[in-house]
Amino acid sequence: MDEALLAIGERLRAAADAAGAYGLAAVHIGAVAPVAVISTAAGPDKRNYLVLFNPEILSLDGDAVEAPEGSVSMPGLQAPVSRPSRARIAYDDETGTRHDSDLEGLPARIAQHEIDQVNGIFFLERLSRLKRDMAIKRWKKSQPA
Length: 145
Hints:
single chain, alpha+beta, Peptide Deformylase, 5-stranded antiparallel beta sheet, 36% strand
């Protein structure tokens, strides 16, 4: 693990904490790096951040659940996204040690969302074109002129 990635991880954790975000990917702080931070807390009112270096989704399982997702990139925009309820992920920790982790419910959704972001997939791309266009139109109308 090099110092540059570790620094991005720390900046990302601090930014997520300051925003009260469920998770963030490095791109949110202007870094192009395979780093994300996710909250592994089971409930929406708590945060327990875990920094993921080189994260990947190993497998997805469980029923597809539709729930609202959003992004700090487009504040105020939420759209229903369908995702599997369980995810098995792999990531490196701050020491470079590789871990596998089984997540369920909200933490699984957060991990899928942020790992997508690391891989260049914005959550709106998970919607049909019609739903995506409608969500963007609603968001644009809500922005100050």
